[in-house]
Amino acid sequence: MQDRLKLLQKLAGLTDEEVVTLGNTGGLPSDIANRMIENVVGGMTLPLGMATNFLVNGKDYVVPMALEEPSVVAAASNAAKIARVKGGFKVTNTGPVMIGQIQTVGVPDPNGAAKKIAAKKKELLAKANEQDPMLVSLGGGAKDLNVKVIETIKGPMVIVELFVNCGDAMGANAVNTMAEAVAPMVEEISAGRVYLRIISNLADKRLVRATAVFDKEALGGEEVVEGIVYAYAFADADPYRCATHNKGIMNGVIAVALACGQDTRALEAGAHSYAARSGAYKPLTTWKENKDRDLVGTLEMPMAVGLVGGAAKVHPAAKANVKILGLKSAIELAEVMGAVGLAQNFAALRALASEGIQKGHMKLHARSLAMSAGAKGEQVDVIAEKMIAEKKIRFDRAKDLVEEISKKR
Ligand code: NAD
Question: DSSP assignment, residue 77?
Answer without folding.
Answer: H
